[in-house]
Amino acid sequence: MISTTNLITGVNDVNDEWIFEYYLNISEKLSGQDVKMKSVFNKDKIPSMFLYCKDGKYKFKDFSSGFQGDGIELVKCMFGLDTRGQAISKIIDAYQDYVKNHNIQTTVIQQHDKWKVSDYEVRHWNNFDAEYWTSFNINTRILNEYNVSPLEYFTMDKELVDGTTKTLKFNKSYTYGYFRDSGELYKIYMPKNPDKKFIKVQDYIQGKDQLKSNSKYLMITSSLKDLMSFKRMGIRNIECIAPDSENSFIPKHLLDSIVDNYTKVFVLFDNDSPGINSMKKYKEKYGFDYVILDMEKDLSDSIKVHGLTKTREVLLPLLKKLI
After folding, report:
1. Which CATH number do you get for residue 77?
2. What is the pLDDT of residues 166-184, one digit of tens each?
3. Range 74-79 contact pairs with CB under 8 angstroms and sequence separation of 24 or more
4. What is the pTM of this model?
5. Do 148 and 214 belong to one domain?
6. Any idea what the CATH number is for the domain that residue 220 is in?
7. Cys-Cys link to 179, which of 20, 132, 147, 173 (CB 3.0-4.6 A)?
8. Facing residues of 37 across strands?
């Protein structure tokens, strides 16, 4: 008699969370919680890979490589496979062998609330703030134009599974709030925090409120800091926006209402592998040309190290080639 207890007929027979637990060697059972870990694609010392549960299914996002997706995509990227079909075959074979010697238990996925910013207080600028921002040649006028304010503190709340609420308060130096023209907080920036520099509060295309649509060209930069550094260069006829992050792709329906106002759009991200890969994606999807500034890792760091004038001398000819 043939036993059908462990018969696997397709990838849908494989527990979704098992793929991540098995291939990432995670000791804790995935039951709906988020997991932050070091990348399996790079030898980074700082955790840059995140697992999260969406609609009952686990997904991953790796900021160091730009890879993201479901468990099948994880295996495809980890082993350099050409197709998702190859990844599925590999997963099924591994799962088939695993269930022969292990008792697979169905995991109950619980909805875990995310940490949310619940309160904050704006403070006055101080000398430490001035030293930090002026190192990138970003002055008070630009900070005010783009609604950047220093924060005395901020709090985050999270509702636990048992119904209670946990609150954390952060009151560290070098903490800044990014606000919209309407006064809404959309991001918190902590440049001196190695574990987590950004906390996203809401979706927003950075720089959108400041667009006047009276320039010929639009440039997409990797961050608001790079955007503000570029504005200090005084290169005319170019306006700028930035996504939530370099690895956060601006959807077409949001871009369409912006790019139609410009003759040409191009992209300037970091010159490392994730940055270049992101620029290539914009080229493939939207046809936007991109600029590789081969100085420091990004535009603002180039200005910090080489100065505004030298960086402008290197960047301007690269831009002229595109327009």
Report:
1. 3.90.580.10
2. 888 999 999 999 999 999 9
3. 74/19, 74/20, 74/23, 74/24, 75/19, 75/23, 77/41, 78/23, 78/40, 78/41
4. 0.73
5. no
6. 3.40.1360.10
7. 147
8. 49
Task: Estimate to the nearest angstrom the gap between the alpha carbon of 282 and the chain centroid.
Answer: 15
For the segment 86-143, what is each residue's pLDDT rounded down to a tens digit?
A: 999 999 999 988 888 777 666 555 555 678 899 999 999 999 999 999 999 999 999 9
Mean pLDDT of successive 10-residue stretches along the chain, which has 323 residues? 48 85 88 86 81 87 86 94 92 88 63 79 96 96 97 89 81 96 95 86 93 91 95 92 80 86 93 88 92 93 95 94 86
Domain count, the chain: 3
Residue 269 near residue 249 (C-beta atoms within 8 A): no
Same domain, 184 and 169: yes
23: Cβ contacts below 8 Å, ≥ 6 apart: 71, 74, 75, 78
* 125 shares a domain with 84: no
The torsion angle over the Cα atoms of residues 159, 160, 164 and 169, rounded to 10 degrees, is -60
Question: Same structural domain for residues 224 and 289?
Answer: yes
Whether residue 226 sits in one domain with residue 269? yes
SS (H, E, C) 78-114: HCCCCCHHHHHHHHHHHHHHHHHHCCCCCCCCCCCCC
